[in-house]
Amino acid sequence: MNDNLDYSAIAQLPSFKKMQRSRMVFTIPITFAFMAFYLGLPLLAGFTKVLTKPFLGSAWLTWAWVYAFAQFLMTWGLCMWYLFRANGFDAQNKIVLADLEKLPALGEDYRVYKDSDPEPAGPADDIKD
């Protein structure tokens, strides 16, 4: 991590504010919807008899099984939706990085990593076989 970066200046960039807002507008409502649906199964199963009723007249399939399977579908659907939206977040990140390069240099080691740059060394690189 670069200790010479002025994070308060970065946070004031209009492109950074726009990126943060678009991410929050997406993630906060989705998180609340997911949690409500996720917590619905134990609440409905524990405190009501709604999920014990047969599903469309079936003798062996109850609404509890349908609800539980729907949670898998919801999770996969939300993951796919997030992956689709993440491409837009990546584009916004590149705009922020371009705006960051326009700021005056904050030290000799100031630089923004590009896609073509090698990854900076991390703790895993210190491990020897």
What does this structure look like?
The chain is mostly helical and 129 residues long. It has one domain (12-107). It is 61% helix and 0% strand. It has three helices and no strands. Helix 2 (14-47) runs antiparallel to helix 3 (63-102). The two termini are 26 Å apart. The mean pLDDT is 79.
Alpha-beta classification: mainly alpha
Count the domains: 1
- Strand percentage: under 5%
Sheet bearing the most strands, described? none
- N-to-C series of helices and strands: HHH
Number of helices: 3
**Roughly how much helix do the residues carry, as a percent range?**
55-70%
Ends distance:
26 Å
List the helices and strands and how they pair.
Blueprint: H1 7-11, H2 14-47, H3 63-102
Helix pairs in contact: 2-3
